[in-house]
Design brief:
11 strands, alpha/beta, 3 domains, six-stranded parallel sheet, five-stranded antiparallel sheet, Beta Polymerase, domain 2
Length: 428
């Protein structure tokens, strides 16, 4: 059974999301250690959401939900009680629709933003490295990427390259007369810094400098930027027109003291895209500074055009339905394999008895063809029954007619789309 425990900008206050993001220990490996029966776990952690996708070999989701929440508590310090009131749980067939919508940018602060697709892919890659993924989770996340691409290609979402940084620049735009006259200090050198740089260049920003709190030089070299070192950081920060921070540092990289040390005495925009915050709150009190952080940006996120959103939602629902159908069909596969194995083992036994017959080769060919024809209809019917949610009937028939018990180890496992708790509900 698949389930998802999600805390996002839609369910949790910004302060809680900030605390959830401030973890260095990977959450995914902690989930299986919390309870038996966890087959796999993938954790998606971004600036606006922390989601644990869990594959549990049980008919009820409660143990998996508890395991995910306890693992999140262990890694972040956010208690289960705090998390319970600010998270949403999806179970069974709803998990695919939720993840597909997330990957497609439909659940983002800025609907259609492009970064989330890459973050979903990286979450799966990290789970692979940690050894915590499973067959069903692999299939789920791979289909999510395919759905995201379908939404991007078939709708207007994402075509404008919308993202949090682009929205932040939109908010600043009304107060900037000439982008080409600006000097911008970009603090951070990761993947989000590259997206920020691209957005700045699209607007024609005059000069972009870069500072790496960790001392990385490759980003500046790769993008042809002037690199600011630690000794000149305060002076540079106090002299530029705009500072954009997007690092994974747990402590602020900019505060009022840095600006004062550099002799700040003008006007500047500071855009904080970090979570945890890269910019200390006291920066907002510095005269001449306009601070835009994620919470402010979120409040100004525009509504997406209804037509594009509706079309994207339809693609997501269709993809989720096909994912669920494929999962139900696969649920009867052990029974199909067991039936064919049983039939062909009987065939081999009978063929061995007639090896010395003068027409042995022709007999073998005829019997193999006959066996294949005989198995065709039961195989098709088994798959059809599974799609209808009656996989248990297939296993029961196999056991009754042939005495073969092919049920998986967790025989009570419920097919994903048939889980009675498949709707979203608020975790308590």
């Amino acid at each position: 059974m698949l389930l998802c425990v999600s805390a996002s900008h839609q369910t949790a206050p910004f302060e809680l999301l900030e605390r959830l993001s401030a973890h260095t220990e990977s959450i995914a490996p902690l989930i299986p250690s919390e309870t038996d029966g966890i087959v796999g776990a993938v954790v998606l952690s971004t600036c606006n959401r922390v989601e644990a996708y869990v594959d549990i070999d049980r008919a009820t989701p409660d143990a998996g939900i508890d395991a995910a929440q306890r693992a999140i508590e262990q890694a972040t310090g956010v208690s289960v009680d705090e998390l319970g009131g600010s998270c949403e749980v999806s179970v069974g067939g709803r998990v695919a629709e939720h993840l597909f919508a997330v990957a497609s940018g439909l659940e983002s602060v800025v609907v259609g933003e492009g970064e989330i697709g890459g973050q979903v892919r990286r979450a799966l890659a990290e789970a692979r490295e940690l050894g915590t993924t499973s067959r069903d989770l692999e299939r789920l996340f791979q289909r999510a990427t395919e759905t995201q691409k379908s939404v991007k290609n078939a709708t207007a979402l994402g075509r404008a390259g919308r993202s949090l940084v682009r929205l932040a620049l939109d908010l600043a735009d009304s107060r900037i007369a000439d982008w080409s006259a600006l000097t911008v200090l970009l603090v951070g050198t990761g993947a989000y810094a590259a997206a920020t740089l691209a957005a700045l260049r699209d607007r024609g920003a005059g000069e972009v400098l870069t500072y790496s709190p960790s001392g990385r030089e490759q980003f500046a070299l790769k993008h042809g930027l002037e690199r600011v070192d630690a000794a000149s950081y305060a002076r540079t920060a106090a002299s530029v027109d705009m500072i954009i921070t997007c690092t994974s540092q747990e402590e602020p990289v900019l505060d009022a003291g840095v600006l004062a040390a550099g002799g700040f005495a003008g006007r500047a925009f500071v855009i904080d895209l970090g979570l945890p915050r890269n910019v200390a709150p006291d920066v907002a009190d510095v005269e001449g500074i306009t601070l835009l952080d994620l919470e402010t940006i979120r409040l100004h996120a525009p509504l997406e055009e209804l037509q594009a959103t509706d079309a994207a939602r339809e693609i997501v629902r269709d993809a989720a339905a096909r994912f669920a159908q494929a999962g139900r069909q696969e649920s009867a596969q052990p029974a199909v394999v067991a039936l064919r194995t049983h039939a062909f083992s009987l065939l081999e036994r009978e063929l061995e008895r007639g090896r010395n017959h003068e027409h042995a080769e022709a007999i073998e060919q005829a019997l193999r063809h006959f066996t294949g024809m005989l198995l065709h209809t039961p195989t098709v019917r088994a798959q059809e029954a599974a799609v209808d949610g009656r996989a248990d009937d297939v296993f029961q028939a196999l056991e009754t007619l042939f005495g073969v018990d092919a049920r998986p180890a967790a025989s009570a496992r419920t097919p994903p789309a048939e889980c009675p708790a498949s709707a979203d509900y608020r975790a308590s």
